Amino acid sequence: MTDIAAPVPLLVLWDVDDTLIYNGGVSKEAYALGFKLLTGKSPVEKVITDGMTDTGIMRSLFERHGLVLTPELAAQAHKVMPTALESLVPQLRERGHAMPGARAAIDALGKEVGITQSVLTGNIAPNAFTKVATFGLHGGLDFEVGGYGSDHEVRAELVPAARAKAARKYGVEFTPATTVLIGDTPRDVEAGRVGGAYVVAVATGKFDSDTLAGLGADVVLSDLCDTARVVEAVLSARGLLDAR
C-alpha cells in the first residue's frame, strides 16, 4: 500500500482592516483619541493610515503636529490605544461590519488539513483581536502567532515575526513558500514580497484588482464572496511548491 503524504503545512495570515472587516472610520477616531490621551490635545491634522502600522500612524500624526514620538511615547501609545478602541466598540459595531464572505472563508480554510490561520496587521495585538472579535470572526484564528504593529514598525517585518511565533508554538518551520498573506493594499503586497509570503490580494478596499496584480500579488480576487475560490487561491501556494 502506498502511503499518501500529508499536505504541506501552510501559515495563512489575514490582514484585518478592509480585508476581514470594515471599520467604518472608527480606526481613525481611535488614533485621534489615542493622540489626545498621549498629548492632552485633540489632533488638528488628519489621521493617515494607508496600511501603516500603529506606531507608524502615530509617528506620522505626531510629526504633522510638530511633535516627536519618542520610544517612550511609542511604548505608551501601545498601552493607551486598546483603551481608545475599546471605548469606541459601540460605534465600531454600529458603523462597521465583517467583510462579505470572511466568516465562510475562515471556516472553510479551517477544515483543510495543515492550515494554520492568524492575522498580519498594523494594529497592535489587543486592537486586532477587538476588531475581529467584534464581528465574530475570531474563531478559527490563532492570535498567538499573528504579526502585529506591536512587533515592528515596518509591516514587512511582521511576516517573519509571525512565522517565528508559529514555529515556536507548532514546531513547524514555515518558509516564504509556505506562508500565505491575504490583504487588500499595496503595503500588504509589499509585505509579502519583502517579508516572504505567497500573496493573495483582495480588491475589497481602496485598490482595484489591476493595481494589486501590477504590484506583484500572486493571486488577485475581487472579494471573499466565492468561498471555493478563496480556498483554491490559498491552496495554490502548495501547487507552486509541487511545480518546483
Rg computed from alpha carbons, rounded to a whole number of angstroms = 18 Å
User: Rough shape?
Assistant: globular
SSE ordering:
EEHHHHEHEHHEHEHEH
Biggest sheet: strands side by side, in what order? 4-1-5-6-7
The percent range for strand residues is 5-15%
- Individual helix count: 10
Give the fraction of residues assigned to helices. Answer: 40-55%
Describe what you observe in this structure.
This protein is α/β, with parallel strands linked by helices and 244 residues long. It has ten helices and seven strands. The chain has helices at residues 26-39, 54-63, 71-86, 89-95, 102-110, 125-134, 158-170, 186-195, 209-214, 227-243; strands at residues 10-14, 21-22, 97-98, 115-119, 179-183, 198-202, 219-221. The strands form two sheets. A five-stranded parallel sheet has the order 4-1-5-6-7, sandwiched between helices. A two-stranded antiparallel sheet has the order 2-3. α9 (209-214) links the parallel β6 (198-202) and β7 (219-221).
Briefly summarize what is shown.
This protein is 46% helix and 11% strand. The protein is α/β, with parallel strands linked by helices and 244 residues long. It has a five-stranded parallel sheet with strand order 4-1-5-6-7, with helices on both faces. The protein has a two-stranded antiparallel sheet with strand order 2-3.
